[in-house]
Design goal:
single chain; alpha+beta; Immunoglobulin-like; Glutaredoxin; 3 domains; 5-stranded mixed beta sheet; 10 helices; 17 strands
Length: 351
């Protein structure tokens, strides 16, 4: 199941909240005028704010200089035609690379592209480059996990061990006992960084929504601004379905969910949709409900990724769902279309 995942632009800062003065100096021999390089990033200070900057490449060289409140992940993107960011944003095969904006100077060097460039000068970005070189040798997901663990064990003082390696091992919705052990093996500086504290909070939250746990209670405004409570569905099997009108994978999955709902709604089964639509997006949300034929209960605080219910259930990617039994216990989660059908057949029989 494809997901829209909260990753790059709303990622938690990796260091303690402190001003970071960064300098990026790049030299890629085969990138020439009229090419432009864009630096795009986002962080939350009194609300999420998007930032972007651009510079014209001269003789293969470019430079960015600035200050951020804390260390964040940014994206470098090359527009070889020198038109504008919209011309390349979201397109396939864009020449792009992630970089950390942190104190000090990062040197980017290469011959043919940003994508294949090397980092030096700044320890955080040097660690990131070493991690990418190491894990790019993996030929399978299982090999990648082995290399993630190797990097963590050999680099307990690196923020990359937490911000990339451990988060990659844990995934969006799971943190295993081994993951927790690896986290505890990191240095105190890393564990007590802003990202480390957030990781530990996520671990605690995920434990509260494991299968077998009682689903945390919540109340949301429905489409008519009336309160809808999860506990009001006690006595039924209910699928809590996290989605949004702007989420392509969610909308793609909706026809299958509608099909299963119509088959089993007479069998003590219902759905409660929880939308991560944003402030000012109520009309778009309502249109999506109507267009997709979602006839079950819907609720949203219209706070997007800042939804209190999404945080309560540690939802960092959508679509995501939790199947609750009549006693309010979580019995399954993260079911794709086939998984939902199989689970409902298991509970109610073939329809």
């Amino acid at each position: 199941m494809r997901k829209f995942i909260l990753f790059l632009f709303l990622i938690a800062p990796v260091c303690s909240l402190a001003q970071q003065n960064f300098l990026i100096k790049g030299k890629i021999k085969n990138i020439q005028a009229p090419a432009k390089v864009y630096l795009v990033y986002r962080y939350e200070v009194k609300g999420a704010k998007s930032h972007w900057d651009s510079t014209v490449v001269k003789n293969g060289e470019f430079e960015f200089k600035g200050t951020v409140i804390d260390t964040v992940v940014a994206q470098l993107m090359v527009d070889y035609k020198g038109v504008n960011l919209d011309d390349i944003w979201g397109k396939d095969n864009v020449d792009t690379k992630l970089i950390y904006l942190a104190n000090g100077t990062t040197i980017i060097s290469g011959n043919d592209s940003i994508r294949n460039s090397r980092f030096s000068g700044n320890k955080l970005n040097e660690d990131y480059y070493r991690y990418i070189v190491l894990t790019n040798t993996a030929k399978s997901d299982s090999e990648k996990k082995v290399l993630d663990k190797k990097f963590i064990r050999e680099n307990p003082n690196s923020y990359i061990s937490l911000d990339l390696a451990l988060k990659d091992l844990s995934g969006v919705n799971t943190i295993t006992a081994e993951d927790e052990t690896l986290f505890r093996s990191l240095s105190a500086t890393v564990r007590f960084s802003k990202a480390g504290v957030e990781y530990e909070k996520k671990s605690i939250t995920l434990k509260s929504v494991t299968n077998g746990s009682i689903a945390p209670e919540f109340t949301l405004p429905d489409t008519n601004n009336n309160p809808v409570k999860l506990s009001s569905f006690r006595g039924k099997y209910v699928l809590i379905d996290f989605w949004a009108s702007w989420c392509g994978p969610c909308r793609h999955a909706n026809p299958s969910i509608v099909k299963e709902f119509n088959k089993y709604k007479s069998k003590n089964f219902t759905i409660l949709g929880v939308s991560l639509d944003n402030t000012g997006g109520k009309d778009v949300w309502l249109k999506a409900i109507h267009k997709d034929g979602l006839t079950w209960a819907q609720g949203s605080d219209l706070k997007g990724w800042n939804s209190g219910v999404a945080k309560l259930y540690a939802v960092h990617g959508i679509p995501q769902n939790f199947l609750i039994d009549p006693d309010g216990k979580i019995i399954a989660q993260n079911l794709d279309e086939d998984g939902l059908e199989s689970k409902l057949v298991e509970l109610f029989g073939k329809m």
